[in-house]
Amino acid sequence: MSQSQPSNVQVISFIVILSFICALILSILASALREPQEIARELDRSKQMLMAARILNPSGYFQVDKAGEFISAHLEKGVQLVPSEALEYPDRTELFDVYQHRLHPMLVTKDGDLVSFKEADINEHDYINENRKRGYYTLPYMLVYEILPNPTGDKEHDESPIGYVILINGYGLWDAIYGYLAISNDGDTVIGISWYDQKETPGLGAVITEPQWQAQFHGKKIFEESPDGTTDFKTAPLGLTVIKGDVESVMGDKPKAKSSIDGIPGATLTGNGVSAAFQDVLAPYRPFLMKLHRKYVENKGER
Questions:
Q1: Where are the domains of the chain?
Q2: How crowded is residue 51: how many other Cβ atoms within 10 Å of its Cβ?
Q3: Which site in 159, 177, 258, 268 is 20 to 30 Å from 201, CA atoms measured?
Q4: pTM for this prediction
């Protein structure tokens, strides 16, 4: 006696049930992995900001500025960084601790005033997470991070910010690019940069993430000097320009060279996108940067 074949209804029912079970398993896995993935992304963003601020070396160890030279350091007495000849690589907890103590989120008004989230009556967590893709520079209150000095334990230690980090976003060749620009408290001199999210072509546009290319930003000026070497902070072009070729060969010692970056062979469109991102994002921050520079000059004159 031959075995009866399953009906079409049975086959379809089996497929539907199997699909439902697979979807349920995938949903559970996605939910279980969501938190670890977000922690990993947050850790990477924290590391990238620490690198832009030159608190963390691109190789992964902490560093401190000693007489104008960055040397390796290790954690001591909580979050104090102390020079060390040995290269000690921090774990996740140490990275987050230094990040939270040395990088302090604040807000900037369109008039260039610095205010806290509490003063602006804005929820910090929601603001940062909800506007990351949109771009903070488009908002009435713009995000900036204070770079606080390395603590010394001395009660008379000056805790005034030594710099600020502005979040940069724009478009490369293929997709959006997101990064950090750290600026000295003079409102003009670049401390460093980093890009934490990009989808540029490996070996070409993706070179923007390589430490060797990023290193040339240190010491650059975001306000372009005039041909006579002076800077009018009210009207000077604001940004950093990635040019075709290398700056030394193309511009020599012209003042504009101080705000220019070596181009990447084969990645002109990515370079144009990076230049546009700096110009677009920094423009609304001009009043803030002008006030920083004015305060820096005043403090320098009092010494």
A1: 96-302
A2: 23
A3: 258
A4: 0.86
